[in-house]
Each structure stands twice: as structure tokens, then as C-alpha cells.
Amino acid sequence: MEITVAGTGYVGLVTGVCLAEAGHVVTCVDPIQEKIDLLNKGISPIYEPQLDDLISRNKKSGNLFFTTDYKDAYANASVIIIGVGTPENEDGSANLTYLYTVARQIAETAVRDCLVVIKSTVPIGTNDKVEAFMREHVKQGIKVEVAANPEFLAQGTAVRDTLNASRIVIGTESKAAKQLLTEIYQPFQQPILTMGRRSAEMVKYASNDFLALKISFVNDIANLCETVGANIDDVTKGMSMDSRIGDKFLQAGIGYGGSCFPKDTKALHWLSEEEGYVLRTVKAAIEVNEKQKFKLIKKARKDFSSFAGLKVAVLGVTFKPGTDDLREAPSIPNVRLLLNEGAKVHVYDPVGEKNFQKIYPTEVEFTTSIEEALRDADLCFVFTEWPEIKNMPVTKFAENMKTPYVYDGRNCYSLHAAEKAGIHYRSIGRPAVN
Ligand code: NAD
């Protein structure tokens, strides 16, 4: 089937590429010329495992195309999947500017009936509104249907998640739309759930907000563990053996970041207030996370009266391992605080450097190895548990740093190893070491 995808970000690009891999002929549209130029050379503008290979393969086999020319791409398209960003407005609501720009572009250009599929995460009721908007703006005689098809991939495993999705949710009341989308996803052989558009939109928010809540709950318990002398590692191990709880998303740390959890919790909370209902659990998840971000620096302040003039090593800056994405990464405000106090910050991250450099072009020193970042440092913060950071011998801190004061926001190292290595080690929800 021929499919057009609007947006070549983490969702649009991975979706388009995986649909091409499944045998469809896919054209991806993005207004950013630089991205399209890279893609046309077979290079992914984002870091995502397996993506480069799939782009090259499907370009070569002639079923994957990239363009900035939306007119050409939308005019005769029968299915257009929208995967553009829906970032946060200042008040916490979802910003639908990009979505409506695409809706307008489709309405202006479509010369045949088409199905518009909204994959972007959008507030409940948006699919209805976009369909009404299309009906009002599209040329006479052309029928545009809108179906919800929220995305559940996680960055860092986006290709794997798309090719092996836990479920495909389709929100539509239309038989034709359901049939078309079932056909599109048939090669993936994944469970397909069909429901009303509003329910489909809610599945996405409820899923993300539940995961955010789980993280904030564990962090809340971790903070209490510190004050009552318990160890969150033991606590979560004990909890996770209950199959009703499970072992996923039970890792204590300095909170969630990324382009989804922060904005999706705020957007649903905002929407609930608009509806006159206070979503207390989600509100609590947001509040806990806001405080959690600064948990490590608070610990460091107990050991250092000021960071002025100190060399600070920062290991990991992306919001999680496996991605180059820095959106809402806890590293950003923490590094800002350190710089404002006059610290000399030396950063190591295996793939996040380029994006971090856009935020801190001159104030931060970038290093090419963990050892280089640690060399002669007075203290170190671990913000991202990249495998090479998590799996390195903990003795590296004492071997390389001037004074091995280590603040670990992802509980990477065993307390026993830290004690044996003689480092001053502070982590989240676990007893202080040395
Ligand atoms: P992104 O910012 O990485 O990508 C958005 C892309 O859309 C950009 O390349 C941008 O240039 C492009 N764009 C903007 N205007 C356009 C237009 N008029 N026509 C075509 N393209 C246009 O965003 P993302 O992370 O891929 O997220 C997209 C949506 O999917 C959001 O609603 C997000 O909440 C949701 N989502 C994201 C993830 C994730 O892990 N990133 C997972 C599930 C759902």
C-alpha cells in the first residue's frame, strides 16, 4: 500500500521506515531541508539503533522516499499518517500548532478521498476536531476521515518496539478506516485493538501517565527509604516478585525526562482541570518528579559549601540510555545550576554530545572518554545509566578523580563495590557509603 507520513522525528521516521520494511511504499514529509537531505543520503538525523540500516535497505529497494514537498506528497495520498510533535505550551496544555499546520496542508492539497491517521499524542477530542476542521476546509466532493492510532514506542528501542509492538490501538467508528488500518498493520502480526477515537486517545495518555506515576511512586518511596534507613534496591526487588506489580519501571533515580512523560502528564492534568476534575494521582507524579530532578545536587551541597572553581565530571546527559534526545533531561537544569555557581563542568556522553552542545555551546567541556571526564575532578554526577558507564569498574573513580565524591542519579553501582573502592558514594534511596 502507498502511505505518506508527516514528520520525520522519532515517531514519524521510525513508523515510516518500519512500514516500508513491512512492504509498503512510504513517502516521509518534513519541512526541515537538512533532515531530508541527510535521509536522502541514507543517513538518519536521529540516533536510534537499527534505523540507519533499515533506511538504506528500504531506500535501495525503492519503497522509501523523503521530501519537503508536502503538496506533491499529500495531493494523491490515500493514507496520511501524522507523527509531528505536540509539545507543551507554557500552561502545560498540548501545543497542536504542528498538527493543525499539517491538517491545513492536507486540506489545501488533497484531490482525492483520504484517511488521515493521527499518530501524534493528542488531547482527548482532538481527532474529532481535526475531522471537523478537514470537512470545513477540504475541497468540495472530497471526503477525509480521521482515525486515531497512538504510538507506544520508546526511544532507544524504537525500531524493535515498532516491529514487535505490544498492541496496535486504532480509534475509529468507520468500517472503512478500520479495514484500511488493519491491512496496513497486518504484516506486523501484532494484536490490534479497535475502539472509539476518544478512548484511543486516552489509552496513550493513561499508559504514559501510569508509567510516570510508577516512577514517581518508586522515587517517593526511595526518598523515604533514605530517612528510615531502608535500601530501595532491596525494597523494589521484594515488590517486583509480586506478579501484580512486576519488575518494570521500578528503578529509583533522579526522575523521568524525555519528550513524552513530562508533557503527557502535564497535558492530561491540564485537560482534567479544564473538565472540572482534578487528576490527583497524576498531579502528584508531576510534583514528585519536579523535586526529584534536584535530589543529587542537594546531596552534593551537604559535602561542598560551594561548587565555584571545582572541576565537576558529568557522566551521561541524555534523558535515558540508547537515545541522543535531551528533551527534559534532568542533566540540563543540574548543569545550569553548577555553571551558575562557577563550576568547571566536564561532560562525557557516548551520543548526546552534539545535542548538549546546542544547549551549552561554550560553557561546558566535552570529553571523549569517561576517564578524561573524571581526570582530576573534585566530584562527579552520573545522570544517565549508559551501559559503558554502568558497567565500568567503580575503581575508576578513585583512580582518576582528585577527590572521589560520586553522586549517582541512576543507582549504577553496588554499595559494596563503592565501599571497597573507598569512594564517597551517594545514590538514590540507598544508604550513604564512606
Ligand atoms: P519530533 O520532534 O522528534 O519530530 C517531529 C517532526 O515533525 C520533526 O522532524 C518536525 O520537523 C516535523 N514537522 C513539523 N511540522 C511539520 C509539518 N508541517 N509537516 C511535516 N513534518 C513536520 O517528535 P517525536 O518525538 O517524533 O513525537 C511526535 C509525536 O509522537 C508527539 O506527539 C509525541 O508525543 C508522540 N510520541 C513520541 C514518542 C517518543 O518516544 N518520542 C513515543 C510515542 C509517541
What would you say this structure looks like, in words?
- With 434 residues, the chain is of the alpha/beta class.
- The chain has 3 domains: 2-199, Rossmann fold; 206-292, N-(1-d-carboxylethyl)-l-norvaline Dehydrogenase, domain 2, CATH 1.10.1040.10; 295-426, Rossmann fold, CATH 3.40.50.720.
- Helices cover 45% and strands 14% of the residues.
- It is globular, with a radius of gyration of 23 Å.
- The N and C termini lie far apart (62 Å).
- By CATH, the topology of the largest domain is Rossmann fold
User: Would you tell me the overall average pLDDT?
Assistant: 97
The side-by-side strand order for the widest beta sheet comes to: 3-2-1-4-5-6
Q: What proportion of the residues form beta strands (DSSP E)? A: 5-15%
Class of the largest domain, according to the CATH hierarchy?
A: Alpha Beta
- Annotated CATH homologous superfamily of the largest domain: NAD(P)-binding Rossmann-like Domain
Rg over alpha carbons: 23 Å
Describe the SSE topology.
Layout: E1 2-6, H1 10-21, E2 25-29, H2 33-40, H3 51-60, E3 64-67, H4 70-75, E4 79-82, H5 97-109, E5 114-118, H6 126-137, E6 144-148, H7 158-163, E7 168-171, H8 175-185, E8 192-195, H9 197-228, H10 232-240, H11 261-274, H12 280-292, H13 295-303, E9 311-315, H14 331-340, E10 344-348, H15 353-359, E11 365-366, H16 370-374, E12 379-382, H17 387-390, H18 395-400, E13 405-408, H19 415-421, E14 424-426
Parallel strand pairs: 1-2, 1-4, 2-3, 4-5, 5-6, 7-8, 9-10, 9-12, 10-11, 12-13, 13-14
Helix pairs in contact: 1-3, 5-6, 9-11, 9-12, 11-12
Bound molecules: nicotinamide-adenine-dinucleotide (NAD).
